[in-house]
């Protein structure tokens, strides 16, 4: 078995093929996912490989897709539902919050809800309104839901397989602007990655850069720019934002004494605030400067002509790094 290069989008497709081949209980459903292979072609080839009974085209009805998936999951299937864009998920929130996240608790463990909700997320692909949302914090607040956001092909592959194995609901959000960026070597060996762990992408000693999803791309670029200035930055991909791997984050911040958190979602009420508060509770006396957050402004994602002003960029990250490095 040899490694080929895959994009994040292709890695998702590869993981779905493997999961469906390994377990007949895995079914895939969503809008245009069968005949058309999905709006981004993430499910291309699944209908031909596994048939229409396991690859189900649905009406444009997100509430129905979620409700149907919960019913399937409660009765032993493993549905992988796709919401075409994260901005279309709001009509399904009742099902996710009131039923998917509570089923194990409501039945005192008699029933579980092993579903995966996949959805593209985020800006950067010149899309119109409702196609560029990054609202992961909504789901991170809900007990019973696990929230995963991969930032590379290998992590998309391994985390999606692990999500499908999980006996409880997983919200699996795929950054659209990373879909076809930077193909990387990947071995289709079925190896699962741990769902509740951060990934340290770069070791460092002077400050910790924390990010997830598409913003990991700019964060790594900022770390390289800092290295040219003689600053050693540790880069951590959170990957699973609910539950958080706070032990890894705490250990890094205790080592470096400084922290900058980068995310694409709006700043107010974002997951960055939860991480910062948790680090203050755990490691306040080891911090040499206040934690900085780099995030989008508290406005709806703009139309594509203004996207470059909306999304946090390398310059924004470096400015925040300078603030924590220069703090007395």
Automatic annotation (TrEMBL):
Keywords associated with the record: Oxidoreductase, Pyruvate, Thiamine pyrophosphate
Gene Ontology molecular-function annotations: oxidoreductase activity
**Superkingdom of origin:** Bacteria
Give start and end of each Transketolase-like pyrimidine-binding domain.
6-181
| Co-factor(s) | thiamine diphosphate
Under the heading Pfam families, the entry gives: Transket_pyr (PF02779), Transketolase_C (PF02780)
- The residue range of the signal peptide is none
Protein's UniProt keywords contain Oxidoreductase: yes
Its biological purpose: The branched-chain alpha-keto dehydrogenase complex catalyzes the overall conversion of alpha-keto acids to acyl-CoA and CO(2). It contains multiple copies of three enzymatic components: branched-chain alpha-keto acid decarboxylase (E1), lipoamide acyltransferase (E2) and lipoamide dehydrogenase (E3).
Task: Identify the PANTHER family for this entry.
Answer: PYRUVATE DEHYDROGENASE E1 COMPONENT BETA SUBUNIT (PTHR43257), PYRUVATE DEHYDROGENASE E1 COMPONENT SUBUNIT BETA (PTHR43257:SF2)
Name the UniProt record assigns to this protein: 2-oxoisovalerate dehydrogenase subunit beta
Which species is the source of this protein?
A: Geopseudomonas sagittaria
């Amino acid at each position: 078995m040899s490694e080929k290069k895959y994009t994040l989008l292709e890695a998702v497709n590869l993981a779905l093929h493997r999961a469906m081949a390994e377990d007949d209980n895995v079914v895939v459903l969503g809008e245009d996912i069968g005949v058309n292979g999905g709006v981004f072609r993430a499910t291309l080839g699944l209908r031909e490989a596994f048939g229409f009974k396991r690859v189900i085209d649905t009406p444009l009805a997100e509430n129905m897709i979620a409700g149907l998936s919960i019913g399937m999951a409660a009765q032993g299937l493993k549905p992988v539902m796709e919401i075409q864009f994260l901005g279309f998920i709001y009509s399904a929130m009742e099902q996710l919050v009131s039923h998917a996240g509570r089923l194990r608790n409501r039945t005192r463990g008699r029933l579980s809800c092993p579903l995966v909700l996949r959805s593209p997320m985020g800006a950067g692909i010149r899309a119109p309104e409702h196609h560029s949302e990054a609202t992961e914090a909504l789901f991170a607040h809900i007990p019973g839901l696990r929230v995963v956001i991969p930032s590379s092909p290998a992590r998309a592959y391994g985390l999606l397989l692990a999500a499908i194995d999980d006996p409880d609901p997983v919200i699996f959000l795929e950054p659209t602007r990373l879909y076809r960026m930077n193909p990387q070597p990947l071995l289709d060996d079925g190896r699962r990655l741990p769902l509740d762990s951060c990934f340290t992408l770069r070791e460092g000693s002077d400050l910790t850069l924390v990010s997830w999803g598409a913003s990991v791309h700019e964060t790594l670029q900022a770390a390289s720019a800092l290295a040219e200035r003689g600053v050693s930055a540790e880069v951590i991909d959170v990957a699973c934002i609910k539950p958080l791997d706070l032990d890894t984050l705490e250990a890094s911040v205790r080592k470096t004494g400084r922290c900058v958190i980068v995310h694409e979602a709006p700043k107010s009420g974002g997951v960055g605030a939860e991480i910062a508060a948790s680090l203050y509770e755990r490691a306040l006396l080891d911090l040499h400067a206040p934690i900085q957050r780099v995030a989008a402004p508290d406005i709806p994602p703009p139309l594509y002509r203004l996207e470059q002003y909306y999304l946090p960029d390398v310059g924004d990250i470096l400015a925040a790094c300078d603030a924590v490095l220069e703090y007395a």
